[in-house]
Amino acid sequence: MSGYIQEDIDPEELAHRTELASAIAGSVRDLIDATVRTEVGETDIAEARRLIAAATEILRKDQLPGPFGIRFNADGTKRSWGNAVLGRRNPIAPPVDIRHETEHSWLEVDLGPQYEGPAGLVHGGVLALVFDQLLGSTAEFQGVPGMTGTLTVRYRRGTPLGPIRGEARVDRVEGVKTFVTGTISVDGEVTAESEGIFILPRWARGEVPEAMRKSVGEG
Ligand SMILES: CCCCC/C=C\C/C=C\C/C=C\C/C=C\CCCC(=O)SCCNC(=O)CCNC(=O)[C@H](O)C(C)(C)COP(=O)(O)OP(=O)(O)OC[C@H]1O[C@@H](n2cnc3c(N)ncnc32)[C@H](O)[C@@H]1OP(=O)(O)O
């Protein structure tokens, strides 16, 4: 399976690289927020663009040939730094930290102005994105991972931009299909609910190592 990469990086070196990844992604997130909300004029825009182009050129000095993929390290940790929801080095990702308890998984994240849909509210597609990852990761953590086959979302009321909480649990497992349900709430009030059917694809059946089943998309 291309894109799933096995590595052996010294844990101390890995911690250092993780710090750097979070730092650069954090800076670019700040830039995104500043861009969405800027009111400066033409001269400042031109100057900012010049500086951004210079920064881009520095980052382009050494690039991966393609996407980051999912990397498993010899120490048992894994990295999906390009993931659109969790990715440590992806400024598009909020990024979300998903916590796993015995029976359920949850997350808390602050969704800023770059995730706006209706005025002042989180874009529905962004909520679906968060659900997809939260429900998929929940299935993985329970040892019954899969690709998203079907994801349904019921938007009960608008979700204001700002802090949200997501929760999910595995409802049932039927053969290769894992049914997961979840909610997103704000100040204790549910604004959206979701059900996902995660299917262990044909190519993975019977050959997914136990250790990988709980860790395909985290990190
Ligand atoms: C180291 C390797 C580890 C491999 C681990 C394996 C899986 C985990 C993979 C990824 C997880 C990774 C990371 C993150 C986790 C979550 C967040 C992100 C999730 C995503 O962002 S993921 C991208 C979007 N997602 C896709 O890109 C899927 C494209 N699609 C396909 O890859 C196939 O389409 C697939 C696999 C869905 C099915 O294909 P298939 O050939 O394996 O299925 P098959 O025909 O055998 O059906 C078996 C039973 O599922 C029923 N069934 C079939 N399709 C259904 C559907 N769509 N909805 C509801 N039920 C369905 C049948 O009716 C039958 O049901 P029954 O058994 O009752 O008859």
Automatic annotation (TrEMBL):
Domain Thioesterase: 120-188
Keyword terms of this UniProt record: Apoptosis, Cell membrane, Cell projection, Cytoplasm, Fatty acid metabolism, Hydrolase, Lipid metabolism, Membrane, Transit peptide
InterPro entries: HotDog_dom_sf, THEM4/THEM5_acyl-CoA_thioest, Thioestr_dom
CDD domains reported for this sequence: PaaI_thioesterase (cd03443)
A GO BP annotation: fatty acid metabolic process
Family, similarity comment: Belongs to the THEM4/THEM5 thioesterase family.
GO-annotated cellular components: cytoplasm; membrane
Membrane protein topology class: Peripheral membrane protein
Subcellular location: Cell projection, Ruffle membrane; Cytoplasm; Membrane
Enzymatic reactions: hexadecanoyl-CoA + H2O = hexadecanoate + CoA + H(+); dodecanoyl-CoA + H2O = dodecanoate + CoA + H(+); (5Z,8Z,11Z,14Z)-eicosatetraenoyl-CoA + H2O = (5Z,8Z,11Z,14Z)-eicosatetraenoate + CoA + H(+); (9Z)-octadecenoyl-CoA + H2O = (9Z)-octadecenoate + CoA + H(+)
Molecular function via GO: hydrolase activity
Protein name: Acyl-coenzyme A thioesterase THEM4
Pfam families reported for this sequence: 4HBT
Catalytic class of the enzyme: hydrolase
UniProt-listed Enzyme Commission number(s): 3.1.2.2
